[in-house]
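Before relying on records like the one below, remember that each one covers exactly one chain. Contacts with other chains, cofactors or solvent are not represented anywhere in the record.
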Amino acid sequence: MRILIYGGGAVGLGLAGCLLKTGEQVDILARENTRRSLQEKGLRQTGIFGEYHAEPQNFGCFSNSNELSGVPYDSILVCTKSFDSPAVALDIADHPAILHEQSVIILVQNGWGNAEIFAEHLPTERIFNARVITGFCRPQSNQVEITAHVQPIHIGSLFGAGLATVEELCHKIDQGGIPCEAASDIARDLWAKMLFNCGLNPLGAIFNVPYGALAEQEDSRRIMNKVIHEVFRVMEAAGYSTHWSSAAEYLEAFYGTIVPLAAKHCSSTLQDIQAGKKTEIDALSGAVIRLGKEQGIAVPCNEMLYNVIRFMEQR
């Protein structure tokens, strides 16, 4: 398979490492400093799924779409931040030579609303979403560390496209070390991830702690409980559902099994704040606020956390 990893952050490098292990032809489109580091030192993967090093000559690395060869890719994995979705969707649409008739675009991004942005520029039958609850961080520009894994990566379509075109990719990622499956109910998976991220990411960034610390004290639990109840109400009012029938049922799994598996991981929101970067809070708490307004549902806890994170970004 010919695969383009669009975005050389922690998630992109993690998936690139998996696919390189299985011998796929992988190109990485990354910022210039990342491209230079990868071409000088190769790609290094460490963490809970073992160590792996890909030599620079074993993959392609570019910093501009115009540098791509023009030979089409079977899969493009978009691993950029959600706020980059409009620019990325337009960039892919402006380079039709990198797509063939069966090419798929997998949105490996946090938050809700990315698929709709890509659908403005690309055929919906090509667009798939990935639900990822695996912890990635990037200690160095050419290194990814996998710190936690809660559930297999799920890949599916919000637009009713068949799964046959993504099953081989799922198999390759799985072979490369991270469990991965095609999923027919990806919307339910994405809302499960929204509950997870909205409950944990803002508070983890505000208090500068990993996920597990938030579940240890009753004070932080009370805040997360209210956040998750708000997300659940908005989700249901907007006509969506997830794998749990109520917020109470989800919270039982949240504290009982989900958070313990990711207890040591520091959220991407915290990592972005520490690095002085923009966060994805608009696609997380911000998406809940927007949907809440559309449905006439107040979400004061999500709105408060959203405003605190935006303040931290400005600082």
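Residues 186-207 form the longest helix (22 residues).
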